[in-house]
């Protein structure tokens, strides 16, 4: 009998702390952090961005071995069509249709011929010596649904949520990707768009993966206060080694290079890192902007434990 592909999906809206959590989990023996694999077709195969280890994707020994075993001498399919297909299937405008399909017992993300190539990557990762749990921080709930129905996948989900005002403020910052030498910066979102994304993704996560034996909600604001305790809870959920967490003390961690294919620039961090609350938004964000985001995300904001008043 083939062993299941144990996959921990780190979900949530962007700029919520998913990348640092992914990196921490990837330090636990038996757990491999691969970042946002939904971008592997565009950013890795297509544009040869840097892996989390610092090497361009095409020169990373870890990924070269995985891709060789996944696709053999023929290599992976052309990345353009797969990337375009994923972009179309995971669009936020499809959320109402996804909810409707789920309500009648159908898959939220219909099967597609490219799914076999996607599945081959995860199977090769699972077959890598020493890998017991794959940690994928692709975030988008529809991609999690796609993964959930791939053959052999045993999916666990941790939903990371952050105050929507803090989330919106972070999306306005200019940040270099550090993925290439061209000085490229990360995408920036208008306040209305980041608020829409926050509401849509957290609504889907609440419907599809409410807290349970294989799903867990984590608030960013709680995680930065108790990172070791919450990391232990997540590792325990997937049957990992809770006796081998990478913490130097309650708030500091020792980070070795990972093989993340995409994510926030902090995926390249190494050495001892102390987890701190990023609350710049509380003072720097203009009041009208705070109220605008509050209005767009209420009442989900309240349901997830955040104050209406700012």
Describe the structure.
It is a single chain. By secondary structure, this protein is α/β, with parallel strands linked by helices. Helices cover 41% and strands 13% of the residues. The chain has 14 helices and seven strands. Strands 2-3-1-4-5 form a five-stranded parallel beta sheet, with helices on both faces. The chain has a two-stranded antiparallel sheet with strand order 6-7. Helix 3 packs across helix 6. The mean pLDDT is 95.
Instruction: Bin the strand percentage.
Output: 5-15%
- Report the order of strands and helices: EHEHHHHHEHEHHEHHEEHHH
The Cα radius of gyration reads: 19 Å
Distance between the termini: 55 Å
Treating each run of at least 4 consecutive H or I residues as one helix, how many helices? 14
Q: What is the count of β-strands?
A: 7
The biggest sheet, with number of strands, parallel, antiparallel or mixed sense and barrel status, is: 5 strands, parallel
- Overall mean confidence score, pLDDT: 95
| Helix and strand composition category | alpha/beta
Global morphology? globular
Q: What level of helicity do the residues show?
A: 40-55%
Side by side, the strands of the main sheet go 2-3-1-4-5
Runs in which pLDDT lies below 50 for 5 or more consecutive residues are none
């Amino acid at each position: 009998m083939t062993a299941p592909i144990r996959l921990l999906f780190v979900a949530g809206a962007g700029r919520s702390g998913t990348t640092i959590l992914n990196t921490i989990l990837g330090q636990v023996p038996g757990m491999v952090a691969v970042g946002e694999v939904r971008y592997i077709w565009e950013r890795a195969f297509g544009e040869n961005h840097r892996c989390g280890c610092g090497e361009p994707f095409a020169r990373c020994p870890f990924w070269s071995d995985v891709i060789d075993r996944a696709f053999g001498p023929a290599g992976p399919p052309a990345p353009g069509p797969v990337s375009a297909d994923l972009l179309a299937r995971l669009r936020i405008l499809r959320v109402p249709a996804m909810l409707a399909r789920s309500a009648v017992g159908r898959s939220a993300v219909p099967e597609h011929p490219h799914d076999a190539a996607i599945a081959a990557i995860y199977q090769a990762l699972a077959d890598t010596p020493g890998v017991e749990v794959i940690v994928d921080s692709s975030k988008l709930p529809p991609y999690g649904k796609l993964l959930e129905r791939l053959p052999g996948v045993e999916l666990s989900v941790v939903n990371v949520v952050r105050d929507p005002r803090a989330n919106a403020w972070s999306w306005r910052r200019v940040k270099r990707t550090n993925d290439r030498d061209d000085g490229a910066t990360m995408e920036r979102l208008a306040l209305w768009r980041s608020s829409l994304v926050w509401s849509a993704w957290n609504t889907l996560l609440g419907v599809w993966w409410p807290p349970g034996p294989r799903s867990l909600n984590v608030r960013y604001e709680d995680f930065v206060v108790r990172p070791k305790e919450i990391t232990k809870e997540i590792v325990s959920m997937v049957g990992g080694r809770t006796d081998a967490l990478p913490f130097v003390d309650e708030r500091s961690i020792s980070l070795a290079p990972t093989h993340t294919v995409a994510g926030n620039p902090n995926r390249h961090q190494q050495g001892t890192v102390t987890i701190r609350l990023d609350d710049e938004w509380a003072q720097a964000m203009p009041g009208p902007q705070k109220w605008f985001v509050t209005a767009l995300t209420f009442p989900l904001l309240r349901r997830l434990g955040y104050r209406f008043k700012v």
